[in-house]
Amino acid sequence: MLDSQDQMRFETLVLPHLDAAHNLARWLLRGGADAEDVTQEAMLRAYRFFGGFHGGDVRAWLLQIVRNTCFSWMEKNRRGKDMTEFDEGAHGPPGPNPEALAIAADARGQLTHALEALPPRFREVIVLRELEGCSYKEIAIITSIPIGTVMSTLSRARHQLQLALVDPVSKEATREL
Amino acid sequence: MSCNRSTTILHGYFDNELDVLGAADFERHLEQCPNCSSALETLKSIRSSLNVAQLYEKAPAELRKKILARIGSTRSVAVFPKRTAVWQWVAAALILVTYIGLRVVSPHRADTDKYETVLAAEIIDAHLRSLQPGHLIDVVSTDQHTVKPWFDGKLDFSPPVQDFTDQGFPLQGGRVDVVHGRSVAALVYGRRKHFINVFIWPTNEKDVAPRSGSQQGYQWTEWHKDRMEFCAVSDAAPSAIEQLRILLTGN
Questions:
Q1: Cα distance between the two ends of chain B
Q2: pLDDT, chain A, mean
Q3: SS3 B217
């Protein structure tokens, strides 16, 4: 339990970034219920560690915790089924059936599909940059990628996203981690 | 045909991460490299389709509620109400009246440091809240003669309203906000791509020298003038806030 002043600081500084925390978890875990559980776990972890936060970029601090909680979760759930690779079977192979064509016609569905098809390490930089608007410096803090390689990681991630959008059947998008 | 810059520095340029010289240098390159130009167009189109698709997924209200309960928060779930209802103005006005009454009885601050910390936290909270879509401005006007009368009837004091467009701080508008349980005037000034919120409310204390601080990348400066308390907050540079303070106080 934090003292009342820290409690207030936590609620003022950290809680406004709950949406960002949930958005990152949702995209990293490709799902609803798991994302909510992991977001909650990460927020409680942030609450426990808040005493160790001494100023700086609170959003990056929180998202780093969220990101690490997500990766631990994926690691833990990896044994049964491989969560770090796109499971083509579970998502249905895109083919020339009416359903798949309807998805392709829907830009949101198509983008979601393409984004979820990316390896997590590429997906996270796209989500942080394009959805969350993070700077390279913040991305480096959150993902523990050296700041010098944020640009090239983004470049490769965007290339794969582009491939997945142009040709959703391409396996290219799932090969590299 | 392929250009290795399209897989490296093009992205830094697209993301506004290059310094001025690097960006100018790359722009010269763009003019003569069809490969990079077309790659840049592709990046733009992917970004705009991601924006249009609205993929951002906010936390569900249920999750927010669960987390607040777990951390023992006393806050209500509606942390960011869309609009302040009339009864809230009334409640806030009552609190304000009570507050002023108390300040008359004990004009000295019991614990200045704590007061400042709490106040700064609330002001930054209010600033962040105002940046949520649709929250920043209730009366949109760059005309001080429109904004000032707008506050009439909404507050029991008349805040000073001035436009500083010529000095680089265009007035964007105003709104009524609630800080520390009282209704306050909030003036919104633009500073390049930043917004500066200036919160104003009456005080019984004498003019005091400005006090400043920063929390979480937001700068705040607080001062008293002519029985009004001002607090400016922004993510703009501290020097910009200081300039605005000087403009507002006229010295």
A1: 61
A2: 81
A3: coil
- Between B52, B59, B128, which is nearest A18 by CB? B59
DSSP for B99-111, written as a single string? HHHHHHH--S-S-
Q: Which residues of A touch B122 (CB under 8 A)?
A: 12
Predicted-complex ipTM score? 0.81
**HEC profile of B18-43:** CCHHHHHHHHHHHHHCHHHHHHHHHH
How many other CB atoms are found less than 10 A from the CB of residue A145? Answer: 18
Would you state the structure tokens that stand for residue B114, as one six-digit string?
Answer: 């704590």
Distances from the Cα of A71 to the Cα of A52, A83, A152, angstroms: 22, 10, 21
Distance CA B129, CA B233 (A): 12
Instruction: Say what the pLDDT of residue B28 is.
Output: 95
Task: Give the pLDDT confidence score for residue B74 in this predicted structure.
Answer: 60
Q: pLDDT tens for residues A65-107?
A: 999 999 999 988 865 444 444 443 344 444 444 554 454 447 7
Q: Kind of pairing, strands B228-234 and B194-202?
A: antiparallel
DSSP state of B167: G
CATH number of B111-249: 3.30.200.100
Give the closest residue to B133 by CA, choosing from B54, B73, B62, B229: B54
**B55 interaction partners in chain A (CB closer than 8 Å):** 27, 108, 111-112, 115, 131
A35/B90 Cα distance (integer angstroms): 40
Helix (H, G, I), strand (E, B) or coil at A7: helix
Tell if the CB–CB gap between B72 and A7 is shorter than 8 Å: yes
Q: What is the DSSP track for A43-86?
A: HHHHHHHGGG--SS-HHHHHHHHHHHHHHHHHHHTTTTS-TTS-
Using the beta-carbon criterion (under 8 Å), do B128 and A165 form an inter-chain contact?
Answer: no
Q: Determine whether B251 is exposed, middle or buried from the number of CB atoms within 10 Å of its CB (0-12, 13-18, 19+).
A: exposed
Beta bridge partners of B211: B222
Say whether residue A12 is in contact with chain B using an 8 A CB cutoff.
yes
Listed residue (B245, B190, B235, B213) closest to B121, CA to CA? B213
Domain boundaries, chain B: 5-53, 61-105, 111-249
Type of residue at B167:
Q
SS3 B112: helix
Structure tokens at B77: 């779930």
Partner B contacted by A105 (CB < 8 A) = no
For B199, phi then psi, to 5°, come to -95, 135
Cα(A54)–Cα(A38) distance, integer angstroms: 24
DSSP annotation of A31 reads S
